[in-house]
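Input set for joint prediction.
Command: fold jointly, output tokens.
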Amino acid sequence: MVVGGLLLLGFVMFQAWRHDRDMRAEHQVLENQTSSSRLACESDLTRFRNDVEQAAPLDELGEWVDEDWSAAKAALSRAEDALARAASSPQPVASLEKVTFALEQGRAALARVQANLVGDEPHDAPPCFFNPNHGPSSTTVSWTTADGTRVRVPSCGADVLRIQSGADPYWRTVAVDDLRLPWWQAGANGAPWARGWFARWHNHPLMASMVQAAPVLRRDEAREVSRAA
Ligand SMILES: [Zn+2]
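tokens >
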């Protein structure tokens, strides 16, 4: 009887220990994933802020650039607010998605400003697949993923030229443990960062092939990014 009781107690304690160990491991994985995406969001935000600051003389042009220029600056503020919220939130994933969701809109607005200034027709398009910091794509390109799948993805002009000359595009990398991998190979480590960048384009005809190249963009895995970022 006593031996049976001790065995039962030992079993219960073992189960509790194992549950605790699994929870801690799961928490650590989540922590690593969040911190990779947070670093990626911080560096993209800095890059966009620098681009907005360099374009500051546009302030002088007033009504010529007003609407799109204001939209670019407002998107910068939204990205900054979302990053600040991510820093203080116990569950920062949704806020991190909102950082890149705002940056994508900001890059699109900045591209419209530049197009208007040189008399080009502004166009709205998904960001360059290889590195969304390159801004809205200007074309599409057929590209082979690491596992040999042929896909068509939106691209900036510079990356198309690189692919056509046999070079790799200038892809955005994300930290995974001690490595830096192309974002579409970084899995969950880059997930909040990536989902925000492409959240506005879920109904785009190329989204299916982008999901093939980057499964992390799959809609059923994606959280709904609030438009009220
Ligand atoms: Zn590009």
